[in-house]
User: What shape does this take?
Amino acid sequence: MRHPYLPPPYPPPPERAAELRRRFAEEARSERPDLSALCLLIGAAADGSLEEAGIDVAQLELDRLAGELPYRPGGPHEWAEAVRRLLGARYEFHGTPGDYQRLESSLLHEVLRRRRGLPILLSVVWLEVARRAGAPVYGVALPGHFVVGFGAADEQVLADPFDGGRALTGADAEMLVVGATGAPLDTSMLQPAAPLEVVQRILNNIRAWATARPERSDVALWAVEFALLVPAHPARLRYERGQLLVQRGAFMSGAEELEAYADLIEVVDEPAADKVRQQAHTARAMLN
Assistant: This one.
């Protein structure tokens, strides 16, 4: 669905968008959610030109790249180096500061095509390629900068896909965390991130991108609706959705969502709930 005033990517038509949400919800609630499948469904929600054939092509590209990794190269250091040589050196996957300004940097199919993206999407490429080849790999959700880890905690090797897969020392990881939070690195930050944590963080990035661009409230709305489909999502997403609906002129739907959020928080914060109900009342008044 093209918009005369906005640049691509353009979202899919409503029927396709609803089908993508249904499939995303089903995958997110499955026993073992598939990270690449979830990321590609997000990509299809953002980019109406990504149809089923394109999703298949992206999955096949991850398979192809995995097939180019050596068979069991050794321990965590050897795995990290093998993936760096393939993805970072040979295929030149990496990130640049300008990638933070592009929605495509959060869409897996576009990251595979451009070989550029945000740290977390480049990490998804590293994870999915290395996992398919049998590597002991997982995501590590450092505050402000997502990286990948290889091996068990006592022999963990960290790599930074945004920097072409450069291996990180303990001091490097410490600097990344201090730079993002001002606080020191805590060992709990080095734990493997579950697929749904990765997906929720990707959706957070998309919402942040859209929030900085008020004309893209359409992107913010579908991203928050996808985030609401992730089990154990933050309740405040209901409030965010209500605000976006009101902003986009869906006053009745927005008011209903704001009232539902107020009911959720009333037990723990009655004054805040009253405030939200007032916002819902104001939204309904806009219909008159």
Observations:
- The mean pLDDT is 93.
- The first helix runs from residue 14 to 28.
- The beta strands are 137-142, 145-150, 157-160, 166-168, 192-193.
- DSSP finds twelve helices and five strands in the chain.
